[in-house]
Specification:
Layout (H helix, E strand, L loop, with lengths): L5 E3 L2 E2 L1 E2 L10 H11 L12 E2 L5 E2 L2 E2 L44 H5 L11 E14 L4 E7 L2 E7 L8 E11 L4 E20 L15 E2 L17 E21 L8 E24 L7 E27 L2 E25 L5 E26 L4 E15 L10 H6 L8 E15 L1
Antiparallel strand pairs: 1-2, 3-4, 5-6, 7-10, 7-19, 8-9, 8-12, 10-11, 11-13, 13-14, 14-15, 15-16, 16-17, 17-18, 18-19
Length: 436
């Protein structure tokens, strides 16, 4: 906790209680209060700083205590205690209004606390969000061996999901002394990855007549018996693509907090999230002769999630112009999930066949969003910020989780969909916040 400031050596500031009268009128809360001139907020529940009549600022005596919640607000005090050029921004933790207000006395400019009553009516941020996608499900696409026993040659472990940079924007509007409305959008995050394996081993020892010993997941890697046209592959490749978008609409409530280096706010609202993924499996084989075979299995999934969100943000002061935000949000979704699987085969004669299987269901999903952000107030209205964010999501339909290895189900049904997959999105966040 920061030490209480003093106006003269050995003379601490004293506190007195100011009771709540009524909320400000709606028009004043819409912005007229600051435009029409200084006003005393009627929504004060904590002890204000008490400057007695013996104390003066720039030679002007004080007869009544200053109103502050939880620190001094230099924009709403009655004359001569109004400092119109010293309004603090939304998240200012500076101990005083700064040298710009030195005309009101050095002690006021440097010592009087001026934190976070958040008089900024509008605030917004723009961030660069570089996220990595870590899926939970594991799947093997090709294996060297027969009768289901062998060494995995290509699996999801070979798919390297890169870190992708997206954008995150937020805008907020103060409604009352303690309540504000915020909107946040995050998007443009897309991931693509490829992996492949080529094999030129002789497959005669396992029942083939050519080269290529990669067993297929459609025969459980030979456990159902090696099948020409599915197994004995000399090439197997996979391609994945993924995307993520998110929109938050929420109210933020800031309760009264005692004087110190800690502040807190609560958030409640809704979140919409949209994720989609595609997986393209491709295999080539010289079996059966003479023309060989080609198999493709393409899976596409979409998740439309909408739900109720609750959150908590803790602000921890480290230095007068530097503080840390610890932000945690939890969301319970309804997930409208869909999958579409298309399988096609080209046999040794060149004949082409294709089958489609689709599935859809509504299910429950969840997301835990955690952020740790460091903030540095560079200018009175401009704050630089950087940190780390992680979103733990569950109850999704992913393409890997809906890769159907039973070709009879793909060909003839019934339609299926798996909505029990987990994905973690995590990475660095860096940007700016502006208040007015």
């Amino acid at each position: 906790m920061l030490p209480l400031p003093t106006l003269s050596p050995g003379r601490p500031l004293r506190f007195a209680v100011i009771k709540t009268a009524a909320l400000l009128a709606c028009a004043a809360l819409a912005g007229n209060a600051l435009a029409d001139g200084p006003m005393i907020s009627e929504d004060r529940l904590v002890q204000p700083v008490d400057l007695s009549s013996q104390e003066t600022v720039n030679g002007v005596p004080y007869g009544e205590p200053l109103a502050g919640q939880p620190f001094q607000d230099f924009t709403i005090q009655p004359a001569p205690r109004t400092f119109p050029n010293c309004r603090q921004p939304l998240l200012s933790w500076r101990l005083g209004p700064g040298l710009d207000c030195a005309q009101y006395g050095a002690q006021v400019a440097l010592d009087v606390p001026a934190h976070a009553i958040r008089k900024a009516e509008w605030y917004g941020s723009a961030d660069l969000v570089a996220l990595k996608r870590d899926p939970h499900d594991k799947l093997t696409f090709a294996q060297v061996g027969a009768l289901g026993v062998g060494v995995p040659a290509l699996s999801t472990a070979n798919i390297d999901y890169p870190m992708d940079a997206g954008l995150q924007f937020s805008i907020g509007r103060k409604l009352t002394e303690r309540l504000s409305f915020e909107a946040l959008y995050m998007g443009q995050n897309e991931w693509q990855a490829d992996a492949a394996v080529r094999n030129a081993l002789s497959n005669t020892a396992i029942g083939g007549t050519t080269t290529g010993a990669l067993a297929s997941p459609f025969t459980q890697f030979g456990a159902l018996g090696q099948q020409a046209g599915l197994d004995f592959n000399n090439l197997v490749s996979v391609h994945t693509s993924d995307r993520l978008e998110m929109l938050d609409l929420a109210f933020r409530y800031r309760p009264d907090m005692p004087y110190g280096a800690y502040d807190v706010s609560f958030l409640y609202g809704m979140r919409y999230m949209q994720t989609g993924e595609t997986l393209q499996y491709h295999s080539e084989s010289f079996e059966p002769t003479p023309g060989g075979s080609i198999n493709n299995l393409n899976v596409a999934t979409d998740n439309d999630l909408i739900g109720i969100q609750l959150g908590l943000t803790s602000h921890i002061l480290v230095l007068p112009a530097y503080w840390i935000d610890w932000d945690i949000k939890g969301t319970l979704f309804n997930n409208h999930a869909r999958q579409r699987t298309v399988y096609d085969n080209t046999d040794s004669t060149g004949a082409f066949t294709a089958f489609t299987n689709t599935g859809a269901r509504d299910d429950t999903a969840g997301c835990l969003d955690v952020r740790l952000i460091g903030n540095f107030q560079l200018l009175p209205r401009l704050t630089l910020r950087a940190g780390y964010q992680a979103m733990f999501t569950t109850g999704l339909a992913t393409a890997v989780g809906n890769f159907q290895s039973d070709l009879d189900i793909v060909r003839f049904g019934p339609s299926t969909i798996n909505t029990r997959d987990d994905v973690i999105y995590h990475g660095v966040v860096a940007g700016i916040m502006w208040e007015r």
